[in-house]
Amino acid sequence: MSGQGWLQIALFLGSVLILVRPLGGYMVRVFEGKPVFAISRVLGPVERLIYKLGGIDPASEMSWKRYAANVLFFSFVGFLLLYLLQRIQGWLPGGPESVGNVRADLAFNAAASFVTNTNWQAYGGETTMRHVTQMLGLTVQNFVSAGTGIAVLIALIRSFARRATDCLGNFWVDLTRAVLYLLLPLSFVLAIVLVSQGVVQTLGSSQEAQLVEPYATAGGHQITSQSIAVGPVASQVAIKELGTNGGGFFNANSAHPFENPTPLTNFLELVSIILIPAALCHTFGRMVGNTRQGWVVLAAMMIVMIGMIAFAYNFEQQGVPQVAQMGADLNAAAGPTTAQPGGNMEGKEVRFGISGSATWAVATTGASNGSVNSMHDSFTPLGGLAPLVMIQLGEVVFGGVGSGLYVMLVFAIVAVFIAGLMVGRTPEYLGKKIEIYEMKVVSLIILVPVIAILVGTMIGVATEAGRAGAGNPGAHGFSEILYAFTSAVGNNGSAFAGISSDTTFYNIALGICMLIGRFWILVPTLALAGSLAQKKHVPVSAGTLRTDGPIFVGLLIAVVIVVGALSFLPALALGPIVEHLIMVG
Description:
Oligomer: single chain
Shape: globular
Order of helices and strands: HHHHHHHEEHHHHHHHEEHHHHHH
Mean pLDDT: 91
Distance between the termini: 23 Å
Strand content: under 5%
Strand order of the largest sheet: 1-2
Radius of gyration: 24 Å
Helix content: 55-70%
């Protein structure tokens, strides 16, 4: 591993940490309804107009049941509209003209994917979706699905801060402020910067490029040019990263030079992936009245991420012994070797290298983003295990915008519950007693996604339709199927790209898993918030476990790893672990 590679990683993580406090403080003002500098003068009238047109009373607050009902209603309407848009896009104006209506099963999968903030793509964006669908369907859902996750988190944070109430805020107000004051301004700025670096932004359908060396087809037809797809790319790239969505305009996603052309765009997009989830930790600490609580959660996330980046970087840098033994590596010394000099560059862009690729793989899977700048399917077995495990941890490092932190707070509740059992007293977190009802809800939030992943994988490997999608036999094929269901339930969207998922089986099965992974966690989280909000505040006593120090950081990390990762150890042993043993054996 090179010093330059570690410097790039340190610069990335350091930049995020520098921005956490100012952005986190800004979000506190946004969601507490306070003026936010000159922005309020510009966007305030727009916000009030939205409330007026929607018949929304911003002063009216909701119970958890009403809040959840509005979330589900809004998501269902978004799902229905996006599905219908795909089914009729061939009759709508705009290019590319060769693109027709989307098949029913694929439209279902894509609608479920973007409404749940997953952005799993069983299709090629430039060859399946018209510009009108990309802009009015996919990009709009990138904003509102991310805003929904943030809104639910803010409701949960209020439940810790408030006492003896059943009010969690107003979903429509929280959603509006998340999109209007946070996601739109940041996306606008990032899109402008990306355009300056060469990311495409146009309504044109395609460009014809003359080939340097024309060639003839098998039928003798002379090919002298290539049609290159273009479109409104920068605007979608900006929100796909900032909203931890991940769906690319192009099938190659962030490995495509029109989405991510330079090391600078790679750096900015990488920072954008975890910027808002990281800043929300500071927002959490500020809103509950103890900033140390937010820093503790952020520290736990950062420690796990650094460890997993180092893990992936190490095994990708080691490379594949068989490559060097066959003499395929130009940097190899004479004679057989046990390592691959120069590392494993298969499936990676030279302009990003191993460090940039490994870091992105861990960040995008930890943050529920799903965009890729390299092909995870081409990683070494243990290098590919790293992004897989990051999703299986529950995507709490740093997780999706909003959703990552509210699941991490669920793990924090488990941690204080375990500590309470050790000392024989009722556990407390942020002044709220954690009792039977809360632990039942927390157990459902943690266990149901695990069951959905394992059951889905079981069906995938046990059925002919499931096995047919795997592009490789044996352990690697198993890893492809396991990764697909893990990514769907985890609302991540990345894949071991060797799998062929555009089939009726995978479109339906993965679409259902996406809906389970999003709403089975989201609704119980609001139920948990409703219960906590009604509780009175418990004063700190000599027996209260401190949750704002390094001991709790260690306990929280241990709970995340034990509960999140060890649930999948047998499955991992059948996939990447046994593949690694075969490779080195």
